[in-house]
């Protein structure tokens, strides 16, 4: 065997970089949990490690090391003349502003949850029996809410719904009946209910703790046109829905074909619409071999595919792609299917009876 030393050393360099990224993900989440980034964002100038520790009630020696790691990773800047650290405003928006469309802190919480589930994930890999969504650490649900919300805030009302045929006008005029299936903590349901107060919204999810969280959030919003109920995608109640929505959940399901058939049974036969929001994916594997594809394939292998397998499902995965999804929906009885719009992170599909 002939070893290409340059190629080997290039790979080792990549490995070392990823060691730092993996450890950096954990300490970034710790910074989020302890309010370290928010304290730095509030400062008009740089902070010493002692000042940051005092502001956050943390230990100065550990904070000194944490800041050094963040500076080495490029998350904060270091001024050696004053021995101070600064969080650039642009980074502060992404790490601390929960209302920003680029807010990313929630993803770190989701990442940490997966390390907590290591033994369960390994067992799923060995047995193929899967790992249900409800069997994960609660950080996954909380992190998912925090991570998905900025994207939904940025796109749902301004972009995704307007891309659908004749839906926005119906929602604005009022009287539209909407089912948000697989709603999780209800972020998408609440955004729609707030934007279209004259229409009614029901959020469904099989995970009871998520529905309880959704009810609490809706109560805080004082919304009168929204309810949440525990139900599966294949048996949620009601009929004549003007709009049924699935946000980032179809590929996780144990019976996506059954879910599609149930949507067809419950949707209004004339002018009813089904909107599916899915992770962005090309149809061919080789076209997804990029940084975003790596993120989606990675989370899919430890969350999405095991979730479907836990219900003896087809394990579509987060990179199912338009062709595979269209095949399932059309074979379930829908006559119309199209890509309504897209973002760098999502594909938005529209199906009609």
TrEMBL record:
SUPFAM superfamilies referenced in this protein's UniProt entry, alphabetically: S-adenosyl-L-methionine-dependent methyltransferases, Winged helix' DNA-binding domain
Domain S-adenosylmethionine-dependent methyltransferase Rv2258c-like winged HTH: 25-96
GO molecular function: methyltransferase activity
UniProt-listed CDD domains: AdoMet_MTases (cd02440)
Keywords per UniProt: Methyltransferase, Transferase
InterPro entries: Methyltranfer_dom, SAM-binding_MTase, SAM-dependent_MTases_sf, WH-like_DNA-bd_sf, WH_DNA-bd_sf, WHD_Rv2258c
Pfam family, one: Methyltransf_31
GO biological process: methylation
Methyltransferase domain boundaries: 173-282
Origin superkingdom: Archaea
Signal peptide (from-to): none
Annotated protein name in UniProt: tRNA (Guanine-N(7)-)-methyltransferase
Protein species of origin: Candidatus Nitrosocosmicus franklandianus
């Amino acid at each position: 065997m002939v070893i290409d030393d340059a190629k080997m050393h290039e790979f080792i360099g990549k490995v070392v970089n990823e060691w730092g990224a993996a450890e950096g993900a954990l300490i970034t989440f710790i910074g989020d949990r302890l309010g370290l980034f928010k304290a730095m964002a509030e400062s008009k100038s740089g902070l010493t490690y002692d000042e940051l520790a005092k502001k956050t009630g943390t230990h100065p020696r550990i904070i000194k090391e944490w800041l050094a790691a963040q500076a080495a990773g490029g998350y904060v800047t270091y001024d050696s003349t004053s021995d101070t650290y600064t969080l650039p405003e642009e980074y502060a928006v992404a790490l601390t502003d929960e209302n920003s469309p680029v807010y990313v802190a929630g993803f770190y919480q989701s990442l940490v949850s997966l390390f907590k589930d290591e033994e369960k994930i390994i067992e799923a890999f060995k047995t193929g029996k899967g790992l249900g969504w409800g069997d994960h650490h609660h950080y996954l649900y909380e992190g998912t809410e925090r991570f998905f919300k900025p994207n939904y805030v940025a796109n749902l009302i301004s972009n995704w719904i307007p891309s659908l045929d004749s839906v926005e006008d119906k929602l604005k005029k009022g009287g539209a009946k909407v089912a948000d299936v697989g709603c999780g903590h209800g972020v998408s349901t609440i955004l729609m209910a707030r934007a279209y107060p004259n229409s009614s919204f029901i959020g469904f999810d099989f995970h009871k703790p998520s529905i309880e969280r959704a009810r609490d959030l809706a109560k805080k919003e004082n919304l009168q046109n929204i309810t949440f109920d525990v139900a599966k995608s294949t048996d949620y109640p009601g009929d004549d829905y003007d709009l049924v929505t699935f946000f980032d959940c179809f590929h996780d399901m144990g019976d996506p074909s059954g879910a599609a058939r149930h949507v067809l049974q419950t949707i209004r036969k004339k002018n009813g619409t089904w909107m599916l929001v899915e992770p962005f994916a090309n149809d061919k594997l080789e076209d997804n071999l990029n940084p975003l594809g790596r993120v989606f394939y990675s989370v899919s292998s430890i969350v999405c595919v095991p979730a479907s397998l836990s219900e003896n499902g087809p394990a579509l995965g987060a990179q199912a792609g338009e062709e595979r999804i269209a095949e399932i929906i059309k074979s379930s009885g829908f006559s119309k299917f199209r890509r309504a719009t897209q973002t760098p992170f999502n594909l938005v599909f529209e199906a009609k009876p």
